[in-house]
Amino acid sequence: MAKQIQAIRGMNDILPTQSPVWQKLESVLRDAVAAFGYSEIRTPIVESTDLFKRSIGEVTDIVEKEMYTFEDRNGDSLTLRPEGTASTVRAGNEHGLLYNQEQRLWYTGPMFRHERPQKGRYRQFHQFGVEVYGISTADIDAEVLMLSNMLWQKLGLTEHVTLEINTLGDSAERAAYRDALIAFLEQFKDKLDEDGQRRMYTNPLRVLDTKNPEVQALLAGAPSLMDYLGEESRTHFSTLCELLDAVGIQYRVNPRLVRGLDYYNRTVFEWVTDSLGAQGTVLAGGRYDGLVGQLGGKDTPAVGFAMGLERIVLLLETLELAKDVPNAVDVYVTAMGDSCVPQAFAIANELRQALPGVRIMTHCGGGNFKKQIKRADKTGAALALIIGETELAEGKVAVKPLRNDNEQQLVSRELLAETIKALI
Ligand code: ATP
Ligand code: MG
């Protein structure tokens, strides 16, 4: 036998038994963004490598070691997108959506990072995100958090996630803090892990984001960015906190929260869960007022977040909130003999027109009554229709309930749609 070809490591199939929970999640996302008046943007999966290098930052996990970068046939360096923000800004600049305008956008789709695959961490994964442009005040930061909060409500996850927020200040404030942090880290230079030592001069804030508990312990006495904030940044942050209080969203201020990408300023946040082990961040984002300018546009304030869909699906499964896999079929149409197949198709099509939303499958592949009813049963359909010569001669169809003991009945074609509607 020929050797089977396997999927690429870390890239998952979503099988028919799993797709219902994905569809449920996707419909919750769509409803939520619609409820807030956001518009969808779709961008290509492949972009110029420079786009990500310039936006995410050279000294970040993503750019240092996770990007799927390759040369195309023209010798251009392309990268499978590792996240959605850079592409959204690129598209916004390219099509003049950002300058002097407000945009409230959302996207969803696959992202690619060459990480070590493990539970909740894959090489192709899916994100849903929102990005808002043109508003600098903290009310919009609160709004995107309200939108994310609505997702948890609709998914039944409110009790399983908590919000952590922080502020990174503006670039001057961060520069002052950076110096203080480097001075602090220098005391522990030899005790830092490899990542910490490498980052301490290039990107010291990222050292705070470490997942290594020993390094975390060393950081207990690190200076706090809050102490380096000016009036304006402090007010921005306190306004956000007041708005979150006003709408009843609970949060914890976490002064260690910095986020792994370079483009954030002021507000940063993460929704985390302790039900997924180490991969606990399910949604993350913040303000990135500098990025539009950095990518060649006019300076435009921006805020957004991205949510990892695999982790939400895992959470729903772990909490057993995704148990019921609905069947795909309501009515299964059988044909007793090849001569009845055209009529069976015609009747099925009439019913699809007459009963929008009712899922009707026609039997294909022949076989006797027993075989066809067995198939019907396997689909989980509520009803089987039996189309046979004798019944057709009388203008009738037999309707056989499959999920209860009720008798099969002969129904005229005129009354068929109505009868089915009453029975399912
Ligand atoms: P982490 O610290 O877990 O590596 P990150 O900071 O790299 O996360 P972001 O770039 O902010 O993550 O992406 C937002 C969200 O996308 C994450 O919170 C997570 O839910 C999800 N995510 C990121 N990388 C992966 C991955 N490799 N597999 C599955 N989901 C992911
Ligand atoms: Mg990461």
Give an overview in words.
The chain has 424 residues and is of the alpha+beta class. The chain has 2 domains: 19-169 and 229-318, Bira Bifunctional Protein, Domain 2 (BirA Bifunctional Protein, domain 2, 2-Layer Sandwich); 331-423, Rossmann fold (3-Layer(aba) Sandwich), CATH 3.40.50.800. Helix content is 39%, strand content 20%. The chain contains 16 helices and 16 strands. It has helices spanning 19-35, 49-56, 61-66, 85-94, 138-155, 171-186, 194-202, 204-207, 213-218, 231-246, 291-294, 309-318, 341-354, 369-378, 389-393, 413-423, and strands spanning 39-40, 46-48, 68-71, 77-80, 103-112, 124-133, 162-167, 252-253, 265-272, 281-287, 302-308, 331-335, 360-362, 383-387, 396-401, 409-412. The strands form 3 sheets. It has an 8-stranded mixed sheet. It has a 5-stranded mixed sheet with strand order 13-12-14-15-16, sandwiched between helices. Helix 1 packs antiparallel against helix 5 (138-155) and helix 5 runs parallel beside helix 10 (231-246). 35% of the residues are buried. The structure holds adenosine-5'-triphosphate and magnesium ion. InterPro entries: aa-tRNA-synth_II (IPR006195), aa-tRNA-synth_II/BPL/LPL (IPR045864), Anticodon-bd (IPR004154), Anticodon-bd_dom_sf (IPR036621), His-tRNA-ligase (IPR015807), HisRS-like_core (IPR041715), HisRS/HisZ (IPR004516), HisRS_anticodon (IPR033656). Residues 1-326 form the Aminoacyl-transfer RNA synthetases class-II family profile domain. Keywords: Aminoacyl-tRNA synthetase, ATP-binding, Cytoplasm, Ligase, Nucleotide-binding, Protein biosynthesis.
